[in-house]
Amino acid sequence: MHDSYISAPYILTKLKASQEMVQGMSYWTYTDLFEEPGPPTAPFQGGFGLLNPQGIRKPAFFAYKYLHALQGDSLRTTDPQAMLATQGGNVTAVIWDLEQPDQKVSNRSFYTKPIPASAAAPVQLRVTHLVPNAAYRLEVHRVGYHANDAYSAYIEMGSPKELTAAQIAHLNELTRDLPETDKVVRSGPTGTVEFTVPMNSNDVVLVKLKRSQGGN
């Protein structure tokens, strides 16, 4: 499952559950290129890295990238599938929906086939105590099925033993992490912004709400 999009919310769930219990936690490893198992035999073979042997970003990579975006002071939340932070009047949130799939076979049999996501409840966000009647830039990034999901695309290619330069370029293009939402919203007279983020099973979203330059 290390290559699957399901690994991203799984990682975040474990990190969230270990808060205030451990001093630190590290992922093993940064890339699939390390000595213990010997040379990789395929572009995706369930390796432990955040990157595959060709340097293509796996969904797990984005779990840590999104966590890194949580700069400033943590905001306490009782939601077990969310982490929030504020800095300089801006708000950042990482929100996910871990749903363990119905798995009746071994990992290799299960995760070497497409695992489509299903619809999940949307996330309703309400941010208060903002500057009244001000412009904020709302940005949403996502990792999930067919979103920053190189492995599903690789399976749909037929799981080739070797990738061509064009295939590598295509998979890198699919994992550029471009925002799916990038727009300006206004806080209104009460300094409140409300919006809805659609979700599918095992999605992870990074939401950024930042005061626009100029302030109005």
Let me know the number of strands: 8
Q: Which whole number gives the mean pLDDT?
A: 95
Q: Unreliable runs, pLDDT <50, ≥5 residues?
A: none
Q: Give the N-terminus to C-terminus distance in angstroms.
A: 46 Å
Instruction: Sketch the major β-sheet.
Output: 6 strands, antiparallel
How large is the radius of gyration? 19 Å
Gross morphology = elongated
Sequence of secondary-structure elements: HHEEEHEEHHEEE
* Binned strand content: 25-35%
Strand order across the largest sheet? 1-2-3-8-5-6
Give the number of helices.
Answer: 5
Structural class call reads: alpha+beta
Portion in helices: 10-25%
Structure notes:
With 216 residues, this protein is an alpha+beta fold. The radius of gyration is 19 Å and the shape is elongated. Helix content is 20%, strand content 26%. Strands 1-2-3-8-5-6 form a six-stranded antiparallel beta sheet. A two-stranded antiparallel ribbon has the order 4-7. Helix 1 (7-17) packs across helix 2 (59-68).
SSE blueprint and pairings:
Layout (H helix, E strand, L loop, with lengths): L6 H11 L41 H10 L4 E3 L6 E6 L2 E7 L10 H5 L7 E9 L7 E9 L6 H7 L8 H10 L6 E6 L6 E8 L3 E8 L5
Antiparallel strand pairs: 1-2, 2-3, 3-8, 4-7, 5-6, 5-8
Helix pairs in contact: 1-2
